[in-house]
Amino acid sequence: MGFFDSEIVQREAQDLFVDYQSLVQLGGDYGKFDREGKKLYIEKMEEMMERFRIFMKRFELSEDFTAQMTVEQLKTQLNQFGVTPQQMFDQMHTTLERMKRELEQKP
Q: What is the pLDDT of residue 82?
C-alpha cells in the first residue's frame, strides 16, 4: 500500500488542511481579539505547526516514492522563496514567539 493510500494519512492531511485554513481565516481578525483570545490563537498555531512538522517527518521517513516526491516538491516550492522547510518552521516559531512577547508587554 502506498503512503497516500492509507486512510489515516488521508484523514490527517485533510484535517491539517481544514484546521490550517480555519486558523488562517480566523487570524484575519487577530487584532480584534482580546488578550485571552490572542493567547489561544497563538497556542492553536503552535499546535498546528507541531502537527505539520510531525506529518512532514512521516513523509521524510517514508520509503514510498510518492511521499518522497511530495517532500521534494515542497523543498522546490520553498526554495523558490529562498527558504528550506526547516527555515519555514523556524520563521513560524520566531513569529509566534514575537507575538507572545508583544502580548506580555501590553497591560
A: 94
